[in-house]
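Lecture notes, continued. The same structure-token format from the folding unit now serves as the input rather than the output. Read the line below as a description of shape only.
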């Protein structure tokens, strides 16, 4: 699909969990930036500590209640009705819908928005999509996710993200020992820059993780990120 064709096709539908904002980007290098969120449904992983299981776990959540179909035109009408500079596209795993997502990201960039895509790093991004995304916040999953390595670590996809020059790599860590696994992946694939974030869905857990990780993350020359939305609003949806 060419970029011209994708931009023109505004009748294509996305499977959406929720849209919300304004709020703050809570994670990664742009944490604290005023942002709007487009959260897509569906994921190819099933992390044990996932904080958005309502996007994919249909054994616990009703798919009909948690998802809706929105055309590209509807998504853009909602987004462009607001005065903002940053759109965060997340999930689930948004790159499962990347071909239908392309006209959204292209239109947002033409309108002057920055576009960040949150991804687990298992799906190789199309070249056309890369052109329209400001930053890929790539979060490869560690053994602490409970997902087998052959499903959560896809070498070709990670190498592709590195090659874009538009990716940052963000790891969810549950304990200090996880940093050795991060180090192995960083060395194996040449991941840079690296951000470490503690797992947690309440402020107390996040702050405890930050204190535990601060010194060893500094020693390894990496960056430490928090979960700003959790510190502010705990586990409240739409924030």
């Amino acid at each position: 699909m060419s970029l011209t064709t994708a931009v023109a096709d505004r009748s294509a539908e996305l499977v959406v969990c929720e849209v919300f904002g304004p709020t703050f980007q809570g994670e990664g290098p742009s944490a604290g930036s005023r942002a709007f969120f487009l959260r897509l449904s569906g994921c190819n992983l099933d992390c044990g500590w996932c904080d958005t299981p309502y996007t994919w776990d249909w054994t616990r959540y009703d798919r009909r209640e948690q998802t809706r179909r929105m055309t590209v035109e509807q998504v853009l009408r909602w987004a462009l009705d607001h005065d903002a500079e940053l759109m965060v596209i997340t999930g689930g795993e948004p790159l499962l819908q990347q071909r239908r997502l392309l006209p959204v990201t292209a239109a947002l960039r033409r309108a002057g928005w920055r576009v960040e895509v949150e991804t687990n790093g298992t799906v190789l991004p199309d070249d056309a999509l890369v052109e329209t995304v400001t930053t890929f916040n790539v979060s490869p999953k560690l053994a602490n996710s409970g997902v087998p390595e052959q499903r959560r670590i896809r070498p070709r996809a990670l190498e592709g993200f590195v090659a874009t020059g538009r990716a940052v790599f963000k790891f969810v860590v549950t304990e200090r020992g996880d940093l050795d696994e991060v180090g192995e992946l960083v060395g194996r694939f040449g991941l840079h820059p690296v951000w470490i974030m503690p797992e947690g869905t309440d402020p107390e857990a996040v702050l405890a993780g930050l204190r535990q990780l601060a010194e060893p993350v500094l020693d390894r020359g990496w960056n430490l990120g928090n979960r700003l939305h959790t510190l502010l609003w705990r586990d409240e949806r739409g924030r």
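Point for the exam: The mean pLDDT is 95.
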